[in-house]
Design goal:
4 helices, about 170 residues, Trna Endonuclease, Chain: A, domain 1, three-stranded antiparallel beta sheet, six-stranded mixed beta sheet
Length: about 170
């Protein structure tokens, strides 16, 4: 029998609840998924959910992530959670207002497997300097298949994969 940590059991309960809302409006599902994404990123990053201006999570103590990122106490992370892809692409929205207000942007992809979301924690300045952004840096997309079956948003998909966190 597998024993879940507190964070895993809360996430599992939240995802079960999200799946039970099959008839709920998409905006309700997005909001719940967003809360789950924030909780997961906080757990991975040794942080806490704060909902401050420009970021959702603050690191409480230093931690080196599986992707090599060395987080420091006080680092700020904005979390963008996706639950629905459009034409094989995932999108993170409302990014332009985050530039200079957070240290990292976490992309949480629940589109394929909400029980095991894919997460990338990208240094904010690198994202704004290198990602192909749309609508005046307001959004960016990447391939839902991670370019296994397509060539969509290759540069952005590679950026996601470069900073993907295995947890």
């Amino acid at each position: 029998m597998t024993t879940l940590t507190h964070d895993q059991s809360v996430l599992t309960l939240g995802i079960d609840y999200l799946k039970s809302l099959s008839e709920a409006p998409l905006e309700i599902k997005r909001q719940i998924a967003g809360w789950l994404g924030e909780a997961l990123v906080a757990s991975i990053s040794a942080g806490k959910v704060v909902h401050a201006s420009g970021h959702d999570v603050e690191c409480v103590k230093a931690r080196t992530l599986a992707n090599g990122i060395k987080l420091k106490a006080g680092d700020r992370i904005e979390v963008k959670t996706q639950i629905q892809a459009t034409n094989g692409q995932c999108f993170a929205y409302s990014l332009s207002s985050k530039e200079g207000k957070c240290d990292y942007i976490a992309l949480v992809d629940m589109t394929t497997n909400p029980l095991k979301p894919r997460i990338s924690i990208i240094p904010t300045q690198e994202l704004f300097d290198t990602a192909h952004m749309l609508n005046n840096k307001e959004r960016m997309g990447w391939s839902q298949s991670y370019n296994k079956t397509d060539n969509k948003c290759v540069e952005n998909t590679n950026l996601f994969l470069k900073y993907e966190v295995v947890y």
